[in-house]
Amino acid sequence: MEKYIYSKSLKAKLILERGFMIEAYQTLMDVIKSRKDAQIFSSFYKERISNGKNKVALIKGFKKNLVVYFALNPAKINEKYGISDVSNTISYANYPTKLIIDSNKDLKNAIRLMEKALSNAGLNELEATEYIDYNDELKEMTFDELVECGLIKKYIKYIPDDDFSNQESYHVVKTNNQITKVEKQPVIEMVNVRLKVMVKGIMPDDLYLITNFTNWSVDKAIKLNRVEDYFIVDAKFPKNFDLEFKISLNKDWYGVEKGIFGEEIKNHKYYLDNDIEVEDIIYNFRREDNK
Going by C-beta distance under 8 Å and a sequence separation of 6 or more, which residues neighbour residue 102? Predict the structure, then answer.
């Protein structure tokens, strides 16, 4: 049996999401291209900005947001900028200051940090450049068109075709080593859910997934794994199930996620009719001192 997995490039995310994501990208590109000799190297998942060997920043996409990693020391940046220190992540050792851009305030902070990183790399001379309108440059395309042109990669994963969905399981009851009853039960078809989570601001040590599938039991919370600067977990749930979940710092409700302003938020909800990958950004958590 074949299972298809899709991986979106930075350009694909910009084309599909558009709106504020392209606006933020346009603004940052205008700042970068205003500096003479600024170099932009594009790859599938990111764009790298530099001046020769002098590093400036990395630009990536996550959920519906741009994420920028600056070649700046996070210890020297005021916490009001809403940055994360990712210096302990090997992949970002040269770009240890991360900023998720999901508001105009974040975009203004990103401009300031980008200008500082450009200056630190020796890119001080302003230069008039040709203006590129990225709303025109990144033409609207459908998901299938993006796959066709290679901006979304399609991977095929082969799974042994055991036809589990049509099998039945047998519950055997024995008395004195004799089979006295056999009950046939249909096997529940399951789907795969991959959850990728980024945290804005200070990175926590752990994160846990609490769901309605286990009747919101904190004892059955699933721990997410830290991968680079985000958390990830792969889990299975019944097909055609209305999944609801929240993320917490611990296996309890004292550290449950909150909204941008520290407010209570609704449960995340997904109807599981197929395998899915979900990206989520967490802004705040409830703390024990304000529970």
Answer: 20, 64, 65, 200, 281
Please state the pTM of the whole predicted model: 0.80
Domain residues of the chain, as ranges? 2-145, 190-290
Q: What is the CATH number of domain 190-290?
A: 2.60.40.10
Burial of 86 (0-12, 13-18, 19+ CB in 10 A): buried
- Which CB contacts under 8 angstroms, 24+ apart, belong to 186-192? 188/238, 188/239, 189/164, 189/165, 189/238, 189/239, 190/236, 190/237, 190/238, 190/239, 191/236, 191/237, 191/238, 191/239, 191/272, 191/273, 191/274, 191/275, 191/276, 192/234, 192/235, 192/236, 192/275, 192/276
Q: Distance (Å, rounded) from C-alpha 269 to C-alpha 196? A: 15
Going along 115-167, which residue ranges are E strands? 152-158
Tokens of 259: 């909204």
> What are residue 279's DSSP bridge partners?
196
Give pLDDT tens digits for 22-75: 999 999 999 999 998 899 999 999 999 999 999 999 999 998 899 999 999 999
Question: Rg of the Cα trace of the chain?
Answer: 23
